[in-house]
Structures are given as structure tokens and as C-alpha cells.
Design brief:
Chain lengths: 484, 484, 484
């Protein structure tokens, strides 16, 4: 701690948010690198290549409709919407950081998915005959998943970092993700279709650790901008709802064809419905006069989808999904009420969007639910073939049994947590270097730093312009309506 | 009427909008009940169960792609978006009730779909061998449909009821829906794929009857909040467009595989296109200076989708769809101009969103169009097999002929109207009890009652804060821009 | 030019924006004409007709899932969202023209798609045995595509024309589109699945030419309304993101079943990702202090999708897609910085949304990329069958070779440009007639002209109302927050 503290002091400096050289440099160089690496490594797979016709005949596939594209493309598009509109708009709730929320989310997702195609490709889709990565629609989904981990982490540091820092965070985040994913899914042989462990637990702790490393003791100087305004809260609901609605597609996007996708969608649909009710209940119960808090409705209603991620493809049963959602709505909302302020005050973790309550905790719960459900699987419930298919007890793992699978699931969860925390501390160190162009403590949560803002002044009548001129800028600048 | 009047007086009381005990209690108890009932009754069906592999082989199904999931999941997701974003955002048009619109819509839909899975399951998906309800993607779509009926009713009482009342309204609404649906589809053997009768007519009259029972003579005291503001109208267009675009999926989601889904989508697409033009025409023609009214564009453009619901799967013909849309755009817009004020003044029905013009009337038209189209069906147009498939002239109804089917369709429409009005009056009585926490007449359409609102004041310059302090709160509070 | 100039002077007149007679008349008459023409010409095709069952058996189709509906409907819905939400919200960026942006977009798209079904049907789907146009889901997609061309053109004249002018522009635009599409795709036998040439190049130059013909020398009198405000920029991001996310569906919607759709989606996904990074880089590099400009983020990030439209179905290779996106992000952003002001000042082309940078230039680049990729195609890369399938070297074109195909692609591009410019000048002449109800130069970009606006005044405190009354209306009227 002492070492960390002094490192922090070393990095304190006069802040300069001018990224005119660093941001274009990073974008150009990294995008050029992507082109070169794609040129060397990435090709179409047999289902997206013009040789598909021959492949079809050779493999006796009766119709084009059996191309994986038709199994997964609708889910892919739903996931794509979650990544760009869902995450992007969920973060627009701050009254004066909507451009940064949706814009930087757009930037890092667009970069991250390219890097993810490479990193995940090397681990999972490398064709050893020619050393090329062969990609199809499933790779696109996995790249979006990988990016989701980094966007979760963005939630913790929203408004406090520069776009260059976000790019660095994404570069390392995707790399760490691909490694932990390979360890968890391939080496440990845990199942995690919806990514409770691989995506949410990892992404959550990765972001929290970075936020801890980047602790800003004087962040209250920006407190005037740390809240929402009426319309920004409505914008955030666009994000919430698209995440909520498409989460069944998220959890079912890469599960087995047929019953696997079908069941995962049903389980997620139910868990999410249940979460909404307990979130509303707790939000009302713990507020003065029983009024609901938009922060809870925007975030905690999604916790059920996170927590059912691992077990969604198992025979969790419809009531099991409801129970998972029930508990997560409660835990997540209580987290916003008690845990977030506690973490900020005592653990020095400033979590702008409360990702600990929405991703990290529900992710851990999801890992545990997955382990229990796997350990409790029986042939009478799954059927002989169903058990083998669902848990992929094939190849090197053909002697696996459900109880041991439960242990592997738990091991996978531990790996995700370790990678998240360890990786976050490492990357947090890098991000403390005084070269990234992040804003000073009294200038956070403000789009002014990185965006040309529309000059709303020109529409202000003279008397107000005079007032504007007179008053302290700190107290007045907001884009939200102000006559309430 | 006299009896109703005195009942109203009995229920008049000092309003208290504190729902801190009632709302959490309802959410917790009902969600717990759902878990128990799901535990007892609900299981996966053969297409979402791990036994699918065996089922596939036993039934000689050549590929996983023939799992019903792939026929219906894209449509399901579109319907899901309509329910949560479509209905939710359509109702955000009020300047100061956007949280309530999108938030309570979210709450009651999430509860309603669980209850609908049970209620519809008992009627339609009960497996008599083991007494369980077996669910798959089609059940999810039907649950969303069922919820749509209640959300339509919410439109009539928007801003005037408490969340607890909405939950009660949804509980009874779903129950009534499941019964009338069973009577109309199974006993009467009417066809209603897009739910013109079952969803829109029922939901519309259900909501209007409740609104009539809850008549507020002094609602004009809230008139300052009953309008829209510029940005809230743009938010509402998000709802309008997602409803409009995905309506073809709504009307085709549960029609027959193959040509049934294909035809229903085409008919709905065309009817909706036609409605837009006549809505614009009437809106411009009946306003001073030919200016368009956003209320019409937001709502009446959707009437064609409602009215083509029943007949969309029939051979309505492309020009038939256009004609239906043409008429509904006119009728619905005229309804907003003349009928809504008339109903409020003379019939004591206060219809916040104008659901009579958007759902009730077009729903009745849709029922009539369905009856006529069915009665006019001939073997020369449909083909022998096509006729049997389209109207499901099988089993107990294998001797049915088109003309008689037309009569059954008309009978179904009457049942929907009766259930809507009767159920609405019954539920309206219950909702008048002085225990539900609804707002007083001068406090309607105001999120203040049930939501923690962002404190926009902190950003107001001193001179304005002083003004804010001085002026009558009633006249000033709005989140919309106010310097125009 | 002199002739054009004097024509302009002839058409100058006192402007009157009252469209109370013309707009309803156009809507009613044209919609009635549509009904009659649909009645005479349009029927269901064999996949959406009740005879599908018999067709299936006769053609030995094993399952309903092979109905084209299941291949294309998810893509169709994505395209539909792009047309109505994508284009509609992208144009809401103006602070006071959001109703017109999203509302008129809605109107002309709803009309255009009906007219497109007829025009394209006569050229492509006419059944010569009975003289009827047979439609299915692919026709709906093509109608949406055709409409896209007109919506692009709307972007150039946004805020400067009346809804009646827009209807006329759409009527002619769809007609011209259908002819040039027939020439390019059928006579010249160019391939253009994503419409770089047919849609974007044509639509772009069509709109620019109209805007040139409608040049307003005193448009700076409306300059107070020509910018965005904070929330209108966030609304516009909704449009941007839905266009960006669903562009893979746009470019793959009508490509070949199987690998064709699969590959087009992958290429578009990659090109768009690459564009985001170079757009951000250029935007930051060319602004003071490295701040990003929302105009670039909203528009230039989409240029990669346009430019990869033609070649997306070819073996462009993943790195090829990245390169195309890389270049287009740079060119498009530089276009906004240098070319748009230049064109306004020196060429008298006022391009409200910068469609030259987003559609016209990238469309031309897309045509060139398509020609090069086609000319470079080899049997070793595509496979013998793959080459024939991808370029459709069948029937009258069975002797075609890739190099010659490249020439045909280039010829197609020229046709698109000629039709765009020629058609635009012609239609621009018509639109200069003094009968269309467009606004005066000092009243552009203002919803006041054609919409009943919500009376935000009622919520203004007395002191402000007084101020409102006193001050010059020109300087004050805006719906955006004004206390910043």
C-alpha cells in the first residue's frame, strides 16, 4: 500500500487534457498494425468462403440454411446492439458526459473487436495446416463478448480517464481476456456460455482494480457534474432496455445449436423478469417516501442476466432462473445503496457506474450458480446424450462427471477473479503514468475536455448571457434544463 | 350510474402517494408466488430440453435448424423490443412523466409475462401426462402478447394511477386475457394471429373502462403537466418507430411456418405504410395553417398494424392491406381530433394516450376485416390445402367452411369487447379502493410522486434560483427547456 | 449557368409555408393511386402464397425453414430499422428540426417503399404469364434499399424544403433509382449487393444536384438554427449507432444464400470498425486542442460501410475490408473539414448533413473498390463454382471473365453518377416552381413552419416570460437548454 501510495504521488502532476497528438497517433498506429496482422493471419472460414458450395457437397449438407450464419446471425446482431447502444447509452446518465459515454464506448469497442478477433483467433480458431485464423459469425460474437469485458471496466472509470487511457485499457483488457478465457474454457474445461465468469467477473474486477489504482482523493470537486439530469436519465433507459431485452440473445448466442440456444434464451428471459420486481421492491423500500431511484432501475434490473450467464445453457429449470433473478435484484440494489458509498469511502474505489453491483457481484454469483448446477446434473434429468452434449464431455474430457465438472467451474471462477484483480492493478500502474492526458479532479465528468460542444449560448437571451458571464462557471455549466 | 357515482364518492379521500410498504410487499409476495408456481408447474418443452437430441432422432428431424427456436426467435426479439422500448417510449411524450412511462411499463411487463406464462400455459400448453406446462419460444411470444394487452390499458390511465394499481391491473388483466383468448381461439375457433381482437380490442376497452371508473373530475388541475415538450416528443418517436418497424414481426410471430409468417409480414408492412400517408393528410388538413400534430404522427401511424392483425395471415392481398391502412389512418386521426375530447367531456372517459383511437377502434375494425376476409375465402384463391392450413380446419373443426368461419370471427370480436368492458369495470371498482397510493387530481402526470428526481436546481444560476424560490411551484416545475 | 440563374430568379417569391391543401392532396391522391396500382399489379409470390405447401412438395423442398423468409427476414428487419430509426435519428442533430428530421423521413419512406415495390417490380419481379408482380421478403428489402437513396438525398436539403417537395423528390427519386438499377444490374451486369453505386452514389449526387438547384444565397439568415444542441447530438447518435450496427445486415441482405450473406456481413463489420478509428484520429488531429467533433463521429464513422457495399460479397479478404474502412474514415472526415465549406462557398452547394462526405464520395470509392476486386478475382481464390456463383456468370453472361467484369463494374459506377446528377438537376428545376410551400431563407431549419410545437412557454416563470416577450424572437427561440 505504501508503495502504491508513493507511486501515486509520483504520478501527480499538472493535468493537460490535450490529446491532439497522442490520440491520433494511437488510432493510426494501432489500426495500421491491425491491418498488417489481419493480412498475415486472418482468412474466411469454410462457411464464409466461396468454397462453401464445395464444402456443402463434400459434407452432405442438404441446404444453405445449415450454414452457421443462420443459426447465429440474429443473436449476433442483438449482441452487437447491446455492445454499442446498450453499454453506450447506459452510461449517458451523467448530465454532462453523454458524448464521452457513447462516443468513447464506440471508439474502444471498434478497436477492441479487431484485436479480439486476433487474440481469440490465435487461441481458438487457428488452422494449423496453414497458420491462418479462420473466422465466421461465431468469431464475431466472441469478439463482441471480449469487448464487453472492457466496456464493463470502462463503467468504473467513466468520466475520469482520457480516450488514450481507454485505448490502453482495452488493449490490455482484450489480451488478458483472451488468456483467461483460454485457461477457463479450454484448460480447466469450465462451461461459461453467457460469460458470468469470463466476461462479467473478469471485467468487473479489472475495472474496479484500475479505478482503485487511479483513486482521485479530490473527486468531490467535480461533484456538481456527477449526477444525472431528467433527460439524461431517459437516455440511459434506452441503454438499459436494449441490454435487458437482448440479454437472452447474449447468453444463447454461442450455446449449442437446437435445444442449447433455446433453453439459454428461456432461462435468461425469466431471470431478468424476476430481477425487475425485486429491484423495484428494494429501491422503494430503502428510499424516503418509497420513491424509486433511477440508478437502481437502470442497473440492478440487469443483474439477473449476468448471474444466469453460466447456468443458462444447463437444466437450471424455469423456477431456478426466477430464483437467481430474485436474489440478484436484491443484492445488486442493496449494493448500490450500501456498498458503493462504502467502497468509495473506505476502500478508495470510485465506481462511477456501480459495476461492482451490476457485473462483479452478480458475475461471481453466476459462477457459483453454474458450479452448483453442473455438480447437481444427473443423467435422469439430462438424458445420456444430453449430458454429454451440454457439458461437452468429449475428447480429453470424456471421463468427466458432473460433480467434478462443478469443481472445474469453481476453479474457473477463481481464475477470472485473479486475472481481473491482477490485470487491473498492472494496467492501473501503467495508466498512472503522467502522459495520457486525463483530466484534473475538478474537471472530471465533463465533455468539455475532449469534445467540441455545441454553442448553446447563442440562443440565450441577453439578460441570461449577462448572468452567465457574471456567475461562477463551476456552478452553472450544464446542458440540462435549469428552471425547475 | 347513480350507484357508480356514490361508490366514487365513498372512495374519495385525502391522497397519499407513499407506496413504501405496499409496492415492495406486492413485488416480493407476487414474485415469490411466481417462483412457487413455476416450481410446481413449468418445465421446458421437448425443443428446449436436453432430450431434444433424442426427440430429433425419434421424429426424423434432419437438422437442428428445424427447432422452432429458429423459426420464431428473431420475431420474438422484435416483439420484445415492441413491448419494452415501443410501448415504454411511446408513453414518454409527457413532459414530466417519462420515468413513470418507461419505468412502470418495464415493471408491469416484467411481472405480467411471468403470470401470463402460467395462465396461458394452463389453457394451452398443459401436458396432461404429468400435469406440467411445457414452454418454448412460442410461449414467450404469447406471454409478451398477453402483456401487450395490459400495456395498452396502461396508456389510458397513464399518469393517474400508482404503480401498485398498475400491478393489480396487470394481474387481473392477464387473467382475463387468458380466459378470453381461450374462449375466442379454442372454443369459438376464431383466428387472430396478430391479436386485433384478443389483444387490441380487449386491451383497449379494458383500459377505457378502468379509466371511466377512475374518472377524475378535477384533472384540469394537472393540465400544466398534461402536454409534451420538444425533447419528450422526440423520445416518444423512438417508441413509435420501433412499434411501427417491428409490427410485421408482431403479426407474423405465431402464424404458420413458411408462407403464413411470410404473408403476415408483407401484409402488415403494407398496411402500416399506407396509414402513415393518410395520418399525415388528416393531421395537416384539420390543423390551422396545415401544421402537423406530433400526437397524430406518434400514434395514428400505427393504427394500420392493429387493424390488419387478424387478417394478416389470410389472403388479404397487398391492395387489401393498403386499403385497411388507408382507412385506419383517417379514422384514428379523426378520433384524436374529435372523439377524445368528446369522450372526456361527455362520457367521462379520460384517455391519456388516446388508446381508443390507436387500439380499440382499429382493433374492432381489424376484427371486422378478419371476419369478412375469412367469410370470403375460396378454395380457388387459397388452394385446398392452403385453406385447411390457414384456417386450421382440422380436428373438431374439419367440417368448417369459410362463411361460417366468418361468423365465428365476428363472435370472437364480441367476446373481446365484452371481456374488455366487463373486466375493466370490475377491476376499476377494485382500483377505486382508497388503499393504492394514487396521486391527487392536482398532482397527476408528475414523476415527483413516485421517483427520486435529479436535482437540476444545483446548476441554476443564483438569479434564477431566487426566481424559482419566489414563484408558484405549480407553474414552474418542468424538466423541459423553458426559454422559448 | 446563366440560364439556371435566371430560372432561379423567376422562381423567387414571397414564401408561404402553408401546406394545408397541397400536403393532404398529395398524400390522398398518391396513396389512392398506390391502392389502384397494387390492385392491378401486385400479388404474393410462391413463397408467401397459401400455395406454398404445394410448391414445396412439387419442388422437393424438405422443410418450411427453406422458405426465403427465414434466410432474409432478420436482415430485412435490421434494414428496416436503418431506414426509419437510422436515417431518421441521424438527422435529428439540428437543435430545432428534430420533428422534421424524423417525421418527414417517416413520411417519405412510407410512401417511397410502396412506389418502389411497383417500380422495381415491373423491372425485376414481373411474372409474364399473368402480368402480375409477385412479391416476397426480398422485394421488401429492395424497396427499403430504393427508399434509402431518397433519404440520402433528403440529407442534403434537410431543413430547406417543404414536405410536399420531399414527396415529389421521392416520387422521381424512386423512379430514377429503379431505372438506373435495372441498367446497372441487369443490362450492364454489374454486381452491387450493398449498393455503393446504385444507392449511395446515385442518392448522394441526386441530393447534391437538387441542393445546388435550390441554392439559397441568404441561408446565413437561418444560421442561428443551423447547429446542434447537446441533447440533439445525443439523439443523432441513436441514428448513427443503429446505422453502424446494422450495416452488415444491409450489405448482406440480398447477397447469395450461405457463404454470400456470411462473407458480406464479416467484411462490412470489419470495414466499419476500422473507419471508427481513423475518423477519431482525423477529427482530433484537425481540431484545436485535439477535441473531437460530434459531426464527424456521427457521420464519418459510417463511411466504411458505404465503401464496402459493392465488394462485400466478393473475396475482399478481412484485411482488404480494414483497408477500405481505414481510407474512408480519413477521406470522409477531411471532407467535412475542408470540402463541405468549400462546396458551399464556391460551388453553391449547401449540403446540410454532409452527404457528399458520407455517401457520394465513399460510394464512388466503393464502386472503384468493387471494380478492382472483381477484375482481380481468380479461380484459385474463389474456386470454379464459387467464381460463377459470386459473379453470377450464368445465362447470357456465362462467357464473362473477371477482368471484363471489372470493366462492367466501372461502367455501372458511371451510370449511377450520371443518373444522380442528371436526375437531380431535372428534379431540382421542378422543385423551384413557386408552388411547393417551402420556407424563406430566414426561416429554414425551423420546425415551427410545419409542426404544431409544444407550448413550452407555460412552464416559464413570469420574469422569463417577460424577457421572452421583450427580446428579439430570432435570437431566442430554441428548445435546447440555454443557461450554459
Amino acid at each position: 500500500m505504501g508503495c502504491v501510495q508513493s507511486f501515486r504521488e509520483i504520478c501527480d502532476r499538472q493535468k493537460n487534457t490535450n490529446v491532439r497528438l497522442s490520440l491520433p497517433a494511437v488510432c493510426f498506429v494501432w489500426q495500421t498494425a491491425m491491418i498488417i496482422l489481419f493480412g498475415v493471419f486472418i482468412r474466411y472460414n469454410e462457411e464464409s468462403d466461396t468454397h462453401w458450395v464445395e464444402h456443402r457437397k463434400a459434407n452432405n449438407i442438404s441446404s444453405d440454411i445449415e450454414n452457421d450464419f443462420y443459426f447465429r446471425y440474429p443473436s449476433f446482431q442483438d449482441v452487437h446492439v447491446m455492445i454499442f447502444v446498450g453499454f453506450g447509452f447506459l452510461m449517458t446518465f451523467l448530465k454532462r458526459y453523454s458524448f464521452g459515454a457513447v462516443g468513447f464506448n464506440f471508439l474502444i469497442a471498434a478497436f477492441g473487436l479487431q484485436w479480439a478477433l486476433l487474440m481469440q483467433g490465435w487461441f481458438h480458431s487457428l488452422d494449423y495446416t496453414d497458420g491462418k485464423i479462420k473466422i465466421g459469425v461465431e468469431n464475431l460474437i466472441n469478439a463482441d463478448f471480449c469487448v464487453a469485458g472492457c466496456l464493463i471496466a470502462y463503467g468504473a472509470v467513466l468520466g475520469k480517464v482520457s480516450p488514450v487511457q481507454l485505448m490502453v485499457m482495452t488493449l490490455f483488457g482484450v489480451t488478458l481476456f483472451a488468456v483467461e478465457e483460454y485457461i477457463i474454457l479450454n484448460l480447466i474445461h469450465a462451461r461459461d456460455a453467457g460469460g458470468s465468469m469470463v466476461i462479467h467477473t473478469f471485467g468487473g474486477y479489472y475495472g474496479l482494480s484500475i479505478s482503485w489504482m487511479l483513486y482521485r482523493p479530490n473527486l468531490d470537486q467535480s461533484s456538481r457534474l456527477q449526477g444525472s439530469c431528467y433527460h439524461s436519465d431517459v437516455f440511459a433507459m434506452i441503454g438499459t432496455l436494449f441490454l435487458w431485452m437482448f440479454w437472452p440473445s447474449f447468453n444463447s448466442a454461442i450455446t449449442d445449436h437446437g435445444d442449447g440456444q433455446h433453453r439459454a434464451a428461456i432461462n435468461t428471459y425469466l431471470a431478468l423478469a424476476s430481477t425487475v420486481l425485486t429491484t423495484v421492491a428494494i429501491s422503494s423500500l430503502f428510499q424516503k417516501h418509497g420513491k424509486l431511484d433511477m440508478v437502481h432501475i437502470q442497473n440492478s434490473t440487469l443483474a439477473g442476466g449476468v448471474a444466469v450467464g453460466t447456468a443458462a445453457e444447463f437444466m437450471l429449470m424455469p423456477y431456478g432462473s426466477l430464483i437467481v433473478g430474485f436474489c440478484c435484484g436484491i443484492i445488486s440494489t442493496l449494493g448500490y445503496i450500501y456498498l458503493t458509498p462504502f467502497m468509495e469511502k473506505h476502500l478508495k474505489i470510485q465506481d462511477t457506474c456501480g459495476i461492482h453491483n451490476l457485473h462483479a457481484m452478480p458475475g461471481v454469483i453466476g459462477g457459483i450458480v453454474g458450479a452448483i448446477t453442473a455438480a447437481a446434473a444427473t443423467e435422469s434429468v439430462y438424458g445420456r446424450e444430453g449430458l454429454v452434449n451440454t457439458f461437452d464431455f468429449e475428447g480429453a474430457f470424456k471421463d468427466m462427471v458432473p460433480t467434478r465438472q462443478g469443481g472445474h467451474q469453481a476453479a474457473g471462477l477463481c481464475v477470472a477473479i485473479c486475472f481481473g484483480i491482477g490485470g487491473g492493478i498492472l494496467v492501473g500502474c501503467i495508466l498512472r503514468l503522467p502522459i495520457w492526458g486525463d483530466a484534473a479532479d475538478d474537471n472530471c465528468f465533463d465533455d468539455e475536455s475532449y469534445w467540441e460542444l455545441p454553442e448553446d449560448e447563442e440562443s440565450v437571451p441577453p439578460i441570461l448571457q449577462y448572468n452567465n458571464h457574471m456567475r461562477n462557471k463551476d456552478q452553472s455549466s450544464t446542458h440540462c434544463s435549469s428552471t425547475k
